Fold this sequence. Notes:
This protein is of the alpha+beta class. Helices cover 32% and strands 23% of the residues.
Amino acid sequence: MGLCQSNLEIKKSNAGIMFTNGTHVLCGYQPNKKIPIISGFGGKIKENETLNIAAIRETLEELFNINPSPDLLLYLENILKTRYASFNKNYYIIKLSFSDLFKIIKILASKQYVSPLYDFWPINIRELIFNRKIMYTNEISHLCILPCILDLKIDQCFIDDINLFMSS
């Protein structure tokens, strides 16, 4: 059956992947939302698509701006078959480690995928975040790592400081 699946999957409309090491989580900035936000990776499930395949597809599209082949999606689903997944309202979320992200990156590189977001295929999280071309037309423009903290809030003064220095 692959990753944890549920008989309820037809009622669910979104799926994604959360990459974490238990203390930090990989996130992305979505500049084109009505209210721009930092969020995880994922999106809508296509017709005849399983939750797992949708989660993997959406994540690869958002991280690398690529169109993964059905064979690649099935291969990755098989590789990631023992991972934890859960439902959060109408959202199916798969929890993977940063090590799993490295495996995915290596597999994509071995299959010679090319991303318009990178001059050279990233080989680690540092390159994934800092070598990314910032394109505000993408669903996810920037990547970042946040601490895994319940009820995370960012100080408005810090946000104001960022805005001050970014505008100068």
